[in-house]
Amino acid sequence: MKPLEDLLIIDFSQFLSGPLAGLRLADLGARVIKVEKKGEGDLSRTRYNSNLDLNGASSIFHSLNRNKESFEADLKNQEDLDKIKDLIKQADVVIQNFRPGVFERLGLGYEVIKNLNPKIIYAEVSGYGEIQSWKNKPGQDLLVQALSGITDLTGNATDGPVSMGLAVADIFAGNHLTQGVLAAVLQRAIKGVGCKIQVSLLESIFDLQFEMLTTYFQDGGADTIRTETNNAHAYLGAPYGIYKTENGYLAIAMASIPQLGLLLNCEPLLDFEQPAVWFSKRNEIKGILANHLLSRTTDYWLGCLEPADIWCAEVLDWKGLIKKNGFKELGMIQEVKMTDGFTYQTTRCPITIDSVNFRSGIAAPHLGENTKAICKEFNL
Amino acid sequence: MKPLDGIVVLEFSQFMAGPSAGLRLADLGARVIKIERPETGEAGRNIATKNMYLDGSSLVFHTANRNKESFTANLKDKEDLKKVNSLIAKADVLTHNFRPGVMEKIGLDYDSVVQINPKLIYATVTGYSRKGEWIAKPGQDLLIQAISGLTHLSGNQNDLPTPFGAAAVDMLCGTHLVQGILAALIKRTKTDKGAWVEVSLLESAIDFQLEIFTTFLNNGKKPPLRSKTNNAHALLEAPYGIYGTSDGHIAISMGPFGILLNILGLSEELHDLDTFINRDELKEEISNALQKKSTKEWLVELQAKGLWCSEVNNYHQILGSEEFKELAMKQEVKLLDGTQFHTTRCPIRINDETLLSSKPAPRVGEHTERITQEFNI
Q: Of the candidates B166, B197, B213, which has its C-beta nearest A347's C-beta?
């Protein structure tokens, strides 16, 4: 039995944050019905990565919406709206990530839904939480990254702002929403009450930076300064970073500099005895190390460092990664199948319970694929 | 009333992934007791950013471990272990992130602990899961970023592999741990049985990349290529990126491309180019054009026409802004000695309320005596 069996989720969300939460909950056993706009569907169906189209929709849509059903509705049409309300009466969770006010204008805000179904768990993602003057700003990942200060953390000192090359605000908001929904489902199981859960991209991306923000509050608001080269964390000392070797790249996390000097046979490093200078002189140390590591292969250096339990690793790209046994043994890739027979590969849920991975062979639905069956089943 | 009121969590976890999960559970209402070794406590007390310490422990430790209690025990000592076992018998959740084999040696592995408490949710974080050739490798954020392909997404094409400048994999893995624990607690309300929840940094790092990794898997395994300049996402088309202006920077993500070209005074012919295939050329044109005016001027013009764009803030700008104040993301934590520091609060709001707590991280063993009496161990 999966932990969320018997849980019915009506998911109005689009793009990434909300659908990611729906995907996790579906993999954990919930039944997720996507309510999609008539004729158009989730806008991410046509938001392409590398121009790649998989059987009529983007890989973004396919990766985030597998294991779900699709119900097509025109929420501005009274008949459709009534059906949706009937469906909500029988549901446990409602998820939405429209811009502030839109869901309410459609006649489906929390107050309305709570009246229809007092035990409902209502889950909402916005771009900017309770900031009134930013209510109409698009809640889009890159913009949230840019506003949040996070672009001063990645890349080197003179690079200017560098974003993290993934939708990190969306992804963390979706994961926080999932946490909130699960906490609410547990509370309801114990105490019998529903509630409203809210997260926002901006609050979530601040949470991701909680160690840096706390440091900023405490150090009197000093500038965020990345290292001149090999930066991997603006607030950590040397050697923390990625270095070029003769034939590839090597990552080294926290380590004692003189010990590194001995293990790598790099004499200049022996002079940096005091841990305090590993931070204050990190540019100089990283420069010495970067230069030294160029002279031999990644494997050679790993051979020097790993036996001494120094925290280091080779740097892989995906092609390199999927060839490794360490990766294959995870069984992280699964094949899923659409109802028309089209198959594609994607990842599975990252959580394991009682030694079982949560897999599902069900791919993403075509737009409105389940509308009729759902109407019949729920008597809409 | 908080959703996890009454839930007791024993946290053997150290560093970031496990403790960040404990922090979230604490903010959601659980009582989190750190089980630490006598005197020195958990190893994360000595991992510092900018060499900053408070009350004997690093500021990072204080950030990830506020709102918790501390119980010290030498797990190699029989008496202490007996007490810990008695605590486990009364707890709901246990978390740890020791390397595979360590808890087995102590006798606190899942099979042993379930004998003491069949209802316990036993939750583990590893670097690379419990099996396979990598299990003995250190599970650390930067190393997992390096191995998982994540470092090929940020920065520009000719830059070195560029890691995310935050412990993002640790943090994500911590959220997955919380999800697994909560799901298992939900299941327990139906079955009255505990469970073993497992997450690993590597699996979380792959999940982090799910949309683009899925693209890779179905695109003839073509590796992601960062754009030559202004890269913000290796698989997205122009204009997606951050650009220089006459006085700073601007982020532009999406919007009608023809209108963008128009406002920037660029040739209509560029509109015929494919925004993904020809993005390097397009980004170069856009980048040159944006140099001509200030960020503010561009924002006014672009936003009026429906382009999605924004200024680019540093910490001074955003953390000093009225908007940040309005978000009420900052909270005060009071230390035992009367001093205080500021940190961020839990990012989840419930019934329009933020979840706040001024309770600090514990000193090593601060609550050992009280817990010994209270749990009668």
A: B213
